[in-house]
Amino acid sequence: MVDCGLPRERPAALTVAGSDPSGGAGLQADLKTFHQFGVYGMAVPAVLTSQNTLGVEAVFPVEPAFVRSQLDCIQRDIPPRAAKTGALGSAETVCEVASWARNASVPLVVDPVISSTSGQPLSSEDGLEALVRSLLPQCLMVTPNLHEAGEIAGMTVQSLEDMRRAAVRIADLGPEWVLVTGGHLSGDAVDVLWSDGQLRLFREARVAGPSHHGTGCAYSAAIAALLSLGRTPPEAVRAAKKYVTEAIRRAPELGRGNHPVDHHAPAKWSGMLRSGRPDL
Asked: Under a CB-based contact definition with an 8 Å cutoff, are residues 267 and 36 in contact?
């Protein structure tokens, strides 16, 4: 047997999200991202979709009780060191995930997916309300884009100052860390991380080109993977942003719509299993 120098025990990370059969977003994107960071990935589907790079054609929510059954089954055998959520669909499913997270005491990253890149709703109105009421108080970090931050904070988010104000409002709802991503603004891609009265900015040069499919999924999955490896939230955000920027830069021209990012982008920032520290 060849010894590759890697530990036999490696951290496990869990995603609870929607399934994207085209592989650009959702569970499929999360699992590929976990793999790039040397993390053992597990997945619980909460929503099934029929979609491709052109858009979402159909959405089929998974029975909430079955979502909870999967979560409990995993928890009894391979408790994750970190978890993330994506599209959860119904309020009932959101509440089941919140209840599980409360009992599991796992670092949780919430990607509050409201709609797909093409604009198709992936969460019901009461699902968003349940997310704000039940799930945000249970999470370590929430990662809304501009639209999602505006919906949660009840305001329009169109500038860096708006992002800061929205982050402060969202933090009042319970999460310890709030990351508002500014990928849809002009200029450099700047994200705002807020916690306990402290603001941090993460800036990367914008990659020219159209919108890409599944960037938010890859970003939040990378953060969860890094948390499972023991990184602090600011370290995880910095390394995850570098990874996603490179994944966008190397995006393959697959499909006739919004191309997926390259989840196999060089993950030089994810060499923790070998070096013990990320290249931050």
From this structure: yes
Phi/psi for 6 (5° steps) reads -100, 145
Residue 46 and residue 20 in contact, taking contact as beta carbons nearer than 8 Å: no
* 215-250 residue pLDDT tens: 999 999 999 999 999 999 999 999 999 999 999 999
> 65 CB contacts (<8 Å, ≥6 apart)?
96
Q: Tell me what the mean pLDDT of segment 162-168 comes to.
A: 98
Q: What are residue 198's phi and psi, to 5 degrees?
A: -115, 130
State the helix-helix crossing angle for 233-249 and 215-228, rounded to 10 degrees. Answer: 140
**47, 19 in Cβ contact below 8 A?**
yes
Residue 206 CA: distances (Å) to CA of 27, 31, 172, 192: 26, 25, 30, 15
Q: Domains in the chain, start-ordered, CATH in brackets?
A: 12-275 (3.40.1190.20)
Q: How would you label 128-160 residue by residue, b for 16+ Cβ within 10 Å and e otherwise?
A: bebbbbbbbebbbbbbbbbebbbbbbeeebeee
| Three-state secondary structure call for residue 66 | helix
> What's the rounded Cα separation, in Å, for the pair 100 and 74?
11
Cα–Cα nearest to 84, from 43, 133, 37: 43
Which residue pairs from 69-72 have beta carbons closer than 8 angstroms and sit at least 24 positions apart in sequence? 70/44, 71/16, 71/44, 71/96, 71/97, 71/100, 71/104, 72/100
